[in-house]
Specification:
Helix content of chain A: 55-70%
Largest sheet of chain A: 6 strands, mixed, barrel
Number of helices of chain A: 13
Radius of gyration of chain B: 18 Å
Radius of gyration of chain A: 33 Å
Number of strands of chain B: 10
Shape of chain A: elongated
Strand content of chain B: 25-35%
Distance between the termini of chain B: 39 Å
CATH class of chain B: Alpha Beta
Largest interface: A-B, 25 and 27 residues
Strand content of chain A: 15-25%
Order of helices and strands of chain A: HHEHHEEEHEHEEEHEHEHHHHH
Structural class of chain B: alpha/beta
Structural class of chain A: alpha+beta
Number of domains of chain B: 1
Oligomer: heterodimer
Largest sheet of chain B: 6 strands, mixed
Helix content of chain B: 25-40%
CATH architecture of chain B: 3-Layer(aba) Sandwich
Number of strands of chain A: 10
Shape of chain B: globular
Chain lengths: 414, 239
């Protein structure tokens, strides 16, 4: 008889014992499973939600392009003290025109500013929409794709024509039947003609950065109708020819804008050059913390479940002391007894874990209503492995206690 | 050849700060196809000796050879193997698995011995037939009478065809009539050429054996053959 055959009989017997033990204590087993069930559910849901947040951020930020610089009065991330930043000079159209003449490296440069307005079409309206104002070069700086139509031209921009490009969400809200192109809408009190509709870009979490929920108009029209040209600060967008040229472009931009501002060599920049990379770094830091904290907290509930298993396994071992004694007397080895109890605890955990996984998959459809996401295959594998390992670890101490019992003592136990 | 050869064994337990000499100095030999009763009052060291004979425990000093192999030096796993293959236990309280039916209870030692399923079933069925429980194979212990339970336990003890059958007060939890039926069974097993060691404190039960060893205060007080062995003749079909 081979060693393998012997092991397989022992395994089968241990499995049988474990299943019998579980089924003969249904309430106790299911309560114990509940602990693991809740633990696995929250861990899987948590990872799913984090993945969803991450996905939508990555998707959204990629439409911005990683090779674009944003020259602005404001810094995206903490650099200079806020009062100093607040007292900086505005970036004006004149600054932009001078700057544009000086730089040679960029693929495109454009002035931008945002203004929050209501958009209306007949009885439909959307409020607090970020209307992004720029010139014809803006579209060269974004990786946007069009559903219908086109971006505005140089002529339209220079002549301050009332034309607008809509983000996909706004187009859907105002024109549920998809007939936006060529129709007129009101931005504030002013009538604009829709010349383009963007394809869905994927949403940013921060609503203000959601390109699907924005409208794009020539910057000249904004100065004509909504804003005082002298009292608003622009952001100049500079797109490098490639990511490799981003650093050179940044240096040139810095030098050029210092010249525009007539800064002496010993004066600090009175503007900031922002880039997406900073946003990604900052975001990764935040998400990293959320991830660790989230997994720690949800992991705690799994840990509590594991303690429950360990507790019940100790009870189970105690209850079956005499049975263990008998099994040892008629030839069960240490490993057989160990396997019996480890199988019992891992089976409880596995069933609890799989049930928790199913619950998490169902609940992820609810989460999906808020953050587009789905349970990751990796999470499924990890959840099953984690519940198995939990079972093995929390079952080990009780199982070992059983395995090393003295058969004489165990048989005498009443 | 001797199945069991014990030379000057002792067993000392540490109870708190005190040392208890459960067995002081015992030497004995048991041959194949002997029917031995071990007798003694409680506290005599009788149980300790039985545990030692059953390889459930090892002596503190002295030599214990089982079929020529030295038990004193064996590891836990080797002891488990000896118990599995060479010793059949019958306990006072039957010690059946409550959730398993008769046939699975009898199969249990064969599982630990690694016998394939088909052969296991066949041998377990044969053993249950030998003890007269042909029609009770699929009953669980709580569906059987005390006598029937002990028969299942006897079937479990003989199924591996062990070198010795070690019975610890096998009739202690049974009424005298049922107890007598079990003694009939032991007699049959003995007459088939098996070796039986019976631990009891009842003179009447001990007289079923062919040799009585009396233990007192950790020593052998007497080791005598039974001249007028009581041979039970009744064979009650339980089915």
């Amino acid at each position: 008889m081979s060693r393998f055959a012997l092991l397989s009989y022992e395994f089968k017997e241990s499995m049988l014992i474990a299943l019998r033990a579980i089924s003969s204590n249904k309430i106790r087993s299911s309560l114990t499973m509940l602990g693991i069930f809740i633990g696995v559910t929250v861990v899987v849901l948590m990872t799913t939600a984090i993945k969803g947040i991450d996905n939508s951020f990555q998707q959204g930020i990629s439409s911005l392009g990683s090779d674009v610089l944003y020259v602005s009065k404001w810094a995206w991330f903490n650099s200079a003290p806020w009062w100093e930043v607040r007292n900086r000079r505005q970036i004006t159209m004149e600054d932009f025109e001078k700057f544009k003449e000086m730089v040679k490296l960029p693929l495109a440069v454009s002035p931008t500013c945002d203004i929050q307005l209501s958009l209306k079409r007949q009885n439909r309206s959307v409020d607090n929409i970020f209307v992004e104002a720029s010139d014809q070069n803006y579209i060269l700086e974004r990786n946007y794709t069009f559903d219908q139509g086109r971006f505005f031209t140089e002529t339209e921009s220079q002549d301050a024509r009332n034309v607008v490009v809509l983000g996909s969400e706004i187009a859907n809200d105002l024109f549920p039947f998809g007939n936006a192109l060529g129709n007129e809408i009101k931005i504030g009190p002013v009538t604009y003609k829709v010349i383009g509709v963007l394809a869905k870009q994927g949403s940013f979490l921060l609503q203000s950065f959601n390109p699907d929920n924005m409208a794009y108009v020539p910057i000249t029209t904004v100065f004509k109708y909504f804003m005082d040209k002298e009292h608003s600060s622009l952001t100049i967008q500079v797109r490098a020819k490639s990511t490799a040229l981003l650093e050179d472009t940044k240096e040139e931009t810095d030098a050029a804008f210092r010249k525009v501002r007539r800064l002496a060599y010993n004066q600090k920049d009175d503007f900031s050059i922002n880039q997406q990379e900073g946003m990604v770094d900052n975001y990764n830091k935040v998400v990293g913390v959320i991830q660790i904290a989230g997994l720690f907290i949800t992991g705690l509930s799994l840990f509590v479940g594991a303690i429950g298993i360990m507790n019940i396994m100790f009870v189970s071992v105690k209850e079956r002391t005499k049975e263990i004694g008998l099994r040892k007397a008629i030839g069960a080895k240490k490993r057989t007894i160990l396997a019996q109890f480890l199988l019992e605890s891992s089976f409880i955990c596995l069933v609890g874990g799989i049930a928790g996984l199913i619950a998490a998959i169902l609940l992820s459809f609810v989460v999906n209503q808020f953050i587009p996401t789905s349970v990751q295959y990796g999470a499924v594998v990890v959840a099953i492995l984690v519940s198995l390992i939990t079972g093995l670890i929390s079952g080990f101490a009780p199982a070992y206690t059983a395995a090393k019992m003295d058969p004489v003592e165990a048989l005498r136990f009443e | 050849m001797n199945i069991i050869n014990i030379e000057h064994i002792s067993k000392v337990y540490q109870v708190g700060t005190e040392q208890v000499h459960a067995i002081v100095d015992i030497s004995l030999k048991i041959n194949k196809n002997e029917y031995v009763a071990i007798m003694g009052p409680s506290g005599s060291g009788k149980s300790t000796l039985m545990n030692m004979l059953g390889c459930l425990d090892t002596p503190s000093t002295g030599k214990y050879e089982f079929n020529g192999a030295s038990v004193s030096q064996m590891s836990d796993n080797e002891l488990a193997k000896i118990r599995n293959k060479e010793i059949g236990f019958v306990f006072q309280t039957f010690n059946l698995l409550a959730r398993s039916n008769a046939i699975h209870n009898v199969e249990l030692p064969l599982i630990y011995a690694g016998v394939p399923a088909a052969e296991r079933k066949e041998r377990a069925e044969q053993a249950l037939m030998d003890v007269g429980l042909k029609d009770r194979m699929h009953h669980k212990p709580n569906e059987l009478s005390g006598g029937q339970r002990q028969r299942v336990a006897v079937a479990r003890a003989i199924v591996t065809k062990p070198s010795i059958i070690l019975a610890d007060e096998p009739t202690g939890n049974l009424d005298s009539k049922t107890g007598e039926e079990i003694m009939v069974l032991f007699n049959e097993i003995y007459e088939k050429g098996n070796t039986i060691i019976l631990v009891t404190h009842e003179e009447y039960i001990a007289e079923h054996a062919a040799r009585i060893i009396r233990i007192k205060d950790g020593l052998i007080e007497a080791d005598v053959p039974v001249l007028n062995r009581y041979i039970p003749k009744i064979r009650v079909e339980v089915n």
